[in-house]
Amino acid sequence: MTEHTTDALPGLPTVKSCPYLPADGYRPSRRPGGGAVTKVRLPDGREAWAVTGYAEGRALLADPRLTADRTHPGSPLPLPDVPGPRTRPMLLGAEGKEHQRQRRALISAFTVRRITALRPRLEQLANDRLDTLLAAGPPADLVSGFALPVPSLAICELLGVPYEDRAFFERQARLRHDPEHAPQAMAELSGYLDGLVRAKQSAPGDGLIDDLLAHQVKQGTIDRDEVVGLALVLLIAGHVTTSGMISLGTLALLEHPEQLAAVRSGTLALPGVVEELLRYVSSEGLLPRVAIEDVEVGGRLIREGDGVLIVTSVANRDETLLDRPLELDVHRPAGQHLTFGHGIHQCLGQNLARAELETAFRALFTRIPSLTLAVPAGELTTTRGSGLTSLPVTW
Q1: What are 141's strand-pairing partners?
Q2: Which domain holds residue 135?
């Protein structure tokens, strides 16, 4: 067991030369016994541990000696300041019985059976957006025209947002990707959801919010404010990562034409293609934790209070996990990855995310088989770790 000195710590890599690969500066792969747990300096000057090994990351994600509470002062990714009152941790940041209670209230909405029933509507949403793109003609921005609105509308469908409010909902979700407007957009969305919950208490409709009010709130399992908080968490967690995966996954396939040809041929099982994209494509790729007790992992001693970042985008490329981990291979049998996390905080909406991605890629490459980039890939820029600012395409 060793401890890392704090002299001249390397900075946490943040610059990407390729939008869908991990940030430059990480080891391209890891050999057994080398560098899977490393101390780094965060952009704000604090220190934290970067975990890039698959086994080490998986172990820490399941370890109760680490907390996911981002309000903890040691969190390497503290919650951003958002206008409005602070609420108690919701789902991703809740722990213990509080987390179990909140997760139990939601879990029935994300079963395979419920998501399977939702698939026809997801297909319609994707095709409606493509109808608009095709009618306008090339070139088009696939981010604003497809990758952002499809997950946004899917969340609207799930939550039970009235049809007439969806343009507002979609616009605010889009503004969340703009650093200048993100805090105000979050405040607008929070206020809107608060008003929506109040309206549904008087005039129930269809959707997850209605189900929570009719069953969980009525039984006293959760309260009205939690319904608002949980709806906001689902919006953020479900929308940002899925939209990023649609845009980055499309770019990755366009830059691997032989792989895209195999996808377009229809001979591959699309769920397997999606799993490989989930493993290979680096969207946000950082899961923050804080040690609440001393933990030894990978030959390092993580002290109580230390911040930890599990770098899933690099852990998914661990050469102890699979052969040729640095290559995209859509023919690869579906394997393990940490994109949805692991342990008690594993992504509740992973079934929905998979269904959205399968639907989006199937519709996109079936209806626009000649889709190509309209600008050099080197000109593309990313948002803060979760996707592309734009993806100009033509056909």
Answers
A1: 392
A2: 82-279+327-394
Domain count, the chain: 1
Distance between CA atoms of 394 and 233, rounded to whole angstroms? 34
8-state DSSP, 17:
S
Tokens encoding 39: 């101390």
pLDDT in tens, 184-234: 888 898 899 999 999 999 999 989 999 999 999 999 999 999 999 999 888
Q: Label the pairing between strands 66-67 and 286-291.
A: antiparallel
List 41's β-bridge partners, or say none: 11, 47
Start-to-end CA span in the chain (Å): 56
CA 56 to CA 59: how far, in whole Å? Answer: 5
CB of 103 closer than 8 Å to CB of 348: yes
Q: With contact defined as beta carbons under 8 Å apart, do 108 and 114 qualify?
A: yes
Q: Does 309 fall in a domain? A: no
pTM: predicted TM-score of the whole model, two decimal places:
0.92
Do 283 and 241 touch, CB atoms closer than 8 A?
A: yes
